[in-house]
Design a protein that fits this description.
Blueprint lengths: L1 H26 L17 E3 L5 E3 L7 E7 L4 H17 L4 E7 L4 H10 L6 E3 L4 H5 L7 E5 L5 E5 L7 H12 L4 H4 L6
Parallel strand pairs: 3-4, 4-5
Antiparallel strand pairs: 1-2, 3-6, 6-7
Length: 188
């Protein structure tokens, strides 16, 4: 009889733990402070190199590719050529790329962009205020934000030129474009 009670208690405990994890995933509670999929992306303001202030909310109605990176980050270096290709594919559509560097100075970024033949729209976050707002803890870290300002993808290193990833971005962008413009496919 004692073995049977132990087995019942064991299965009840396992079932309760499994139920908790299923509930947590289903309700998208996530970790406190972490930006979760489906959550509104925190708004922020940041200046570009010429001093023009932009806000994330300025880009409502577009898919926003928000990438945090640094020139010293080896995986960022590896990811950048594919990000450049993604930018080229979608730059004339309802898509906005915000490359937020956590480097300290613009000369570092200029040298990096020259060495890697990049022309991405970049913003500088040397004090990590925006990276802190998004709880960024490793680089590169990217958030895809839909036209309503909701996070739809949160990832670290990614192969952005992979056809499946491009198709996902294209699908998000197409949802925001009139049917006529949807006939255009991403140029690669």
């Amino acid at each position: 009889m004692g073995e049977r009670i132990k087995a019942i208690i064991f299965f009840l405990v396992v079932g309760a733990v499994a139920g908790f994890f299923v509930f947590k995933q289903a309700t998208n509670m996530g970790d406190p402070g972490v930006i979760n999929i489906g959550q509104k992306a925190p708004d922020f303001s940041i200046k570009n190199e010429s001093g023009r202030l932009v806000k994330l909310s300025d880009f409502r109605g577009k898919v926003v590719f928000l990438n945090f990176w640094g020139t010293w980050c080896t995986t960022c270096v590896e990811e950048m050529p594919e990000i450049q290709r993604l930018h080229k594919m979608f730059k004339d559509r309802k898509f906005e790329m915000l490359e937020v560097s956590i480097d300290n100075d613009w000369p570092e970024i200029h040298q990096f962009y020259t060495e890697h033949n990049l022309d991405l729209p970049t913003y500088l976050d040397p004090g990590h205020q925006i990276a802190g707002l998004y709880k960024v803890n490793k680089f590169p870290e990217t958030f895809l934000i839909d036209g309503n300002g909701n996070v739809v993808r949160h990832t670290w290193f990614e192969h952005w030129a992979d056809p499946r990833v491009v198709a996902k971005v294209d699908s998000l962008v197409r949802q925001l474009e009139p049917a006529k413009q949807q006939d255009a496919t991403p140029a690669g």
